[in-house]
Every structure is written in C-alpha cells, then in structure tokens.
Write a structure and sequence with these properties.
With about 170 residues, the protein is α+β, with helices and mostly antiparallel strands. The chain contains four helices and five strands, in the order ααββαβββα. It starts with a helix and ends with a helix.
C-alpha cells in the first residue's frame, strides 16, 4: 500500500501546486489590469484637459500682432490658470515671455525644449508620465497669428492626488 500512496500523494501535491500557481497568476492579473486601465484613463483625461487649456490660452494670445512680455501678461491676467502647476509662453525663437513659476523667474531666458520645433511647425504636443506616485503632464500649443506661428504656450501639471489613487 505504501508504494501506491507515494505516487498518489506526489501527483496530488503537483496538482495542488499547479492550482496554486494558476490562482496566484489570476489574482496578479486581476489586480494589475484595473490599475493599468485607470492609468490610461487618467492619461487620456489629462491630454484632453491640458490640450484644451493650452489651446484656449494660445487662442487668446493669437489676437496679438507680436508677443511681448507686457502683452502676454495682460492677456494672461484675464485667464484663469490657477489649477495648473505651471504655464509659460515663448516667442517664436523660444524666448520666455511669461512664466507662472514661483521658484525663479525665467522671463527673458530661452526655453530649450525639443517640443518647440514640433510646435512651431504647427503641431500640438502632449506628454504625460507617471513617476514617484504622481502624474507629470505637459501640453504645448502654437500661438498662430495671421497663419504664422508667433510663439508657443507650454502648460504643465503635477498631479499627486490622482497618482495617490493608483
């Protein structure tokens, strides 16, 4: 009898381990899939929101003949961008004309971003990433006046609240 119980117990043990491994794999998939789907939904929501906000700012600035720090400042005081982490506007050469950064004023400096050439060729640019428990999203839109790009609007948002949900 003992010769029969050894193979039977080994077979039962193998079935139990296989069942346990399959169960663990299913639980991992069921726990990570909603997080991935939620993260993708947040990315799409950020893209819609930030691209829309940068487009509104660019549209408001497009009424100016040329972008100057004073002209941009006047237009930006009329807009509500307080829910954004940072907004800055450059001229067609990449010189920063307006910046909401509270840490350091970058007005008068050049923004050396790879997006500037893409945006100045007429394309909107959006990028979002999830790092250190927060979403960092960036949207850029050209400011068009009389069919020509005269500047770029950059909108940044750092969202730790949405990141904490994940």
């Amino acid at each position: 009898m003992s010769a029969l119980t050894k193979p039977t117990s080994r077979l039962q043990w193998k079935f139990a381990m296989t069942y346990l491994i399959i169960l663990i794999a299913v639980l991992v998939v069921l726990n990570t899939y909603p997080v991935i789907v939620t993260q993708n939904l947040v990315f799409r929501s950020k893209q819609t929101t930030l691209s829309g906000q940068s487009a509104v700012i660019a549209s408001s600035l497009s009424g100016l003949e040329t972008l100057t720090p004073d002209g941009v400042e006047q237009v930006m005081t009329l807009l509500d961008e307080h829910n954004l982490s940072r907004v800055f506007v450059t001229d067609a050469n990449g010189k920063i004309l307006y910046d909401t950064s509270k840490k350091a004023s970058n007005v008068g400096k050049y923004a050396l971003f790879r997006e500037i050439s893409d945006v100045l060729s007429g394309n909107d640019v959006f990028d979002s990433s999830f790092k250190d428990g927060a979403f960092l999203s960036r949207a850029s839109t050209p400011v068009i006046s009389r069919g020509n790009p005269i500047g770029v609007v950059f909108v940044y948002e750092y969202d730790a609240k949405q990141g904490a949900l994940l």
